[in-house]
């Protein structure tokens, strides 16, 4: 099992309720947004996945919601139409809320943010702080696309992985050799540690 699929499996533990397929689909979409941008510009956005009732309590719409009124059956993340719609909407301020089953329920959502009790590397801005905050206040897992074209995963109020889109795609297509170095964040009891690890065989806390 690779370092990333190992981490995804742990983030998708039964207590959290986010299935592996949903988290993998969101990360893959996030990687596409990071790589493609939109109309020649870099795009960043945020996905909060799971525990949607609690996430709604700590967030609010920034505009009339572009997604929520459509039938749930038309809003699944596996649909090409939905993925292209999300890529378009990702240009707006705010982020998306995704149900455990992969139904995208809200877009352009602002997440209430408090910095107390979150763990964030210096240099990251308010979008990442919002992701850390929503995962501290709920059981959601958050995926951030940075305008710097990096994808970061958060849970329990902390960043747990930093994904380089090209490495993710190479690994998914089986083209990444094990010795290629990757930057992996390793969960430890009560916190996290950042480690430079060998792809597919990272150290474990
Ligand atoms: N609390 C929030 N909830 C949802 N979206 C937010 C929130 N705070 C900021 N954002 C979004 O993040 C955008 C970028 O903000 P900022 O540059 O401070 O974040 P950042 O963490 O540095 O992200 P990036 O790496 O993409 O620049 C804002 O324009 C806004 O769309």
From TrEMBL:
It catalyses: 2 ATP = 3',3'-c-di-AMP + 2 diphosphate. Signal peptide: none annotated. Keywords: ATP-binding, Nucleotide-binding, Nucleotidyltransferase, Transferase. SUPFAM superfamilies: YojJ-like. The keyword Cell wall biogenesis/degradation does not apply. GO terms for molecular function: adenylate cyclase activity; ATP binding; diadenylate cyclase activity. Residues 4-165 form the DAC domain. InterPro entries: DisA, DNA_integrity_DisA_N_sf, DNA_integrity_scan_DisA_N. PANTHER family: DIADENYLATE CYCLASE. This is DisA bacterial checkpoint controller nucleotide-binding protein. It comes from Alienimonas californiensis.
């Amino acid at each position: 099992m690779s370092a990333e699929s190992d981490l995804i499996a742990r983030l998708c533990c039964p207590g959290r309720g986010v299935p592996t397929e949903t988290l993998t689909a969101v990360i893959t979409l996030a990687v596409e947004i990071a790589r493609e941008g939109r109309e020649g510009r870099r795009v960043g956005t945020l996905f909060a996945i799971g525990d949607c009732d609690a996430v709604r309590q700590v967030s609010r719409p920034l505009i009339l919601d572009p997604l929520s009124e459509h039938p749930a059956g038309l809003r699944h993340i596996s649909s090409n139409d939905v993925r292209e719609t999300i890529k378009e909407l990702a240009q707006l301020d705010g982020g998306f809320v995704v149900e455990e089953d992969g139904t995208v329920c809200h877009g352009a959502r602002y997440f209430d943010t408090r910095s107390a009790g979150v763990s964030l590397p210096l240099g990251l801005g308010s979008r990442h702080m919002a992701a850390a905050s929503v995962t501290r206040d709920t059981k959601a897992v958050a995926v951030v696309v940075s305008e710097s074209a990096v994808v970061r995963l958060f849970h329990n109020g902390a960043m747990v992985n930093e994904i380089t889109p090209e490495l993710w795609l190479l690994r998914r297509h089986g083209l990444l050799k094990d010795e290629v170095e990757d930057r992996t964040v390793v969960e430890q009891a009560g916190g996290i540690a950042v480690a430079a690890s060998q792809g597919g065989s990272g150290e474990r806390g």
